[in-house]
Amino acid sequence: MRPEVFSKLCNLLSTRYGLHTIGNVSVEEQVATFMLKVGHRWTDRTVAEMLQRSTWTTSRSFNLVLGACVRMTKDWVTQFHSTHIVHPYIANNMRLMPHFKNCIGAIDGTHLKVIPPTEDRGKWIGRKGFPTQNVMLACDFDLCFTFCLAGWEGAAHDARVFRDAINDPRKGFQMPLKGKYYLVDAGYPNMAGFLSPYKGHRYHLLSFNHQLSTPMTKNNSITVIHPFDAPLRGLLAFGSVNFMP
What is the DSSP letter of 216? Predict the structure, then answer.
């Protein structure tokens, strides 16, 4: 992270989201502690040794910044729907326009490692073979996350997490306006407001790299042009975490 970006983040968290100096631990040190643990996967002991703090102090700093970030998501991770606006990325791309003029983004899931209680460990182990949390994310063409639903066990199917998001008002998911839709992968249902590839057909671009590059059926033609696997596949990546299966 560039120094000017780090400074702006610290200022934002302190002025708008309640993060402040605790004792002799500044806001900047708290945010640095958070970034070291999240971005570099450092342990409390490693961070404490580097900053010459106790592990209790580094743990407290992490939790304080985490709380501020959660409060910040209410303003920054939001959905915006319009019946008239076609995103410039679509409007200026002859390959996608007008076929995807009503697309407002993409939805997919990712599995994040967790350490669950020993007695509940089984239900958190899914197809990855180790305990994970199944997280559903929505992203727009501005490279911004617009929705996040975390908390489901790794054994939960993507479709189950999806149904929870759209059926429970407490989750805060806004259904697309009439005529608009999200692109989703084959793990999600094909329904009004959500467009998935044809079932049983290749749709990841890598599937075509070592074979015939030209789609052989009309279904393959549609799934190859599906922008979920071109601009949006790399779009749903954040740091070292790949948000695509």
Answer: S
Cα 185 to Cα 157, 219, 223: the distances in Å are 13, 15, 10
Mean pLDDT estimate for the chain: 80
223 — pLDDT class (breaks 50, 70, 90):
very low
> For the segment 117-166, what is each residue's pLDDT rounded down to a tens digit?
888 888 888 777 889 999 999 988 887 888 989 889 988 888 999 999 99
Among the listed residues 84, 78, 80, 79, the one whose alpha carbon sits nearest the alpha carbon of residue 179: 84
Non-local CB neighbours of 201 within 8 Å, separated by 6+ positions? 217, 219, 220, 223
Amino acid letter, residue 63: N
Cis ω on the peptide bond leading into residue 231 (within 30° of 0)?
no
**Integer angstrom CA distances of residue 56 from 67, 88, 111, 245:** 17, 48, 29, 36
Handedness of CA 191, 192, 198, 204 (dihedral sign): negative
Please give the Cα distance from 116 to 82 (Å, whole number).
Answer: 40
- Give the count of beta carbons closer than 10 Å to the beta carbon of residue 165: 19
In the numeric block, which tokens belong to residue 205? Answer: 């671009």
The CA distances from residue 84 to 9, 11, 58, in Å, are 33, 36, 48
- The secondary structure of 145-208 as a DSSP string is EEEEEEEEETTS-HHHHHHHHHH-GGG-PPPPPTT-EEEE-TTS--BTTEE-PPTTS--STHHH
Number of neighbours of residue 19 by Cβ within 10 angstroms: 25
